[in-house]
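quick one, three chains, predict together pls
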Amino acid sequence: MGRTPCCESKGLKKGPWTPEEDKLLLDYVHANAPGNWRMLPKLAGLNRCGKSCRLRWTNYLRPDIKRGPFTPEEHKSILQLHAIVGNKWSMIAAQLPGRTDNEIKNYWNTNLKKQLRQQAALNPAAAGDHHPAAQLAGSSSSLAARHTAQWETARLEAEARLSMLSTTSAATTSVTASSSSSTAEHGADAPPSDVFLRLWNSEVGDTFRRKAVAAPPREGKAVAVPPPGDDSSAASNVTVAVTTEDYQVFMDLAAEEFGLFHGGFPLYPPADGLAQSFMFADFH
DNA sequence: AACCTTTACAACCGCGGGCTT
DNA sequence: CAAGCCCGCGGTTGTAAAGGT
């Protein structure tokens, strides 16, 4: 593949941006919407590579970026989403308006990861055994730290299991995001959200599906769900469209089953009313 | 006050993948 | 179909600020 070396030109500035450079970039983007990043530095009069300009804009200068510490709600959402999608920072950021993937990634690496390590040190048994909630019940550490450890443990466990399964199963699963963000573009053929699928395929998922069957589909979105334990339907091309609302209900149920997150933990309402939908084709 | 360590976060780097030619 | 171009992503690094000794 033709890869473009970045900043290969001599004399291009690197490192921290000055207010003057910021102003040049802002002025240009305001006058001309960000388009060709490669050409932008030259057009804007910046001695930077296009990549650096794009990064500065998307991570710092964009007007819709929310500054300041993460709220408890954002904290919870990050924990939950990370448990589902792992280090897919852009996917997580897509659910947190005003937050960048870089910001979330930094927050995770400096804050949440540390909590997890501390929790693991306090309760090493929880790191590798079966039910996270059972392992951690009775712990005296903070609730947030337990949440982190529980979800991370569940995630790692499920990933390992799915990894084993994937070597013998011909199941094909796709996850798509319906939003118009760049994440959607890149996520179209992304690997399945392992833990989500594991939860979905577990008793928790069965319970959810039973409830989904009992309730009529909402807002015209087709919710075709295989009856619990129906292997024949599982073998066929059953497509399940999960709306944001479904997703929230499902995750709350999963949390309930795990004995976690008392009171549930809301995701941010999607900007377009349907921030994310997961499509499971050839469901197994 | 000086030095060392830790923390937080901005920025860089290399890569993968989509699109165009 | 292959090569080139461009963009975005995730991992990593650099560094200023804060805290500790």
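The two ends of chain A are 35 Å apart (CA to CA).
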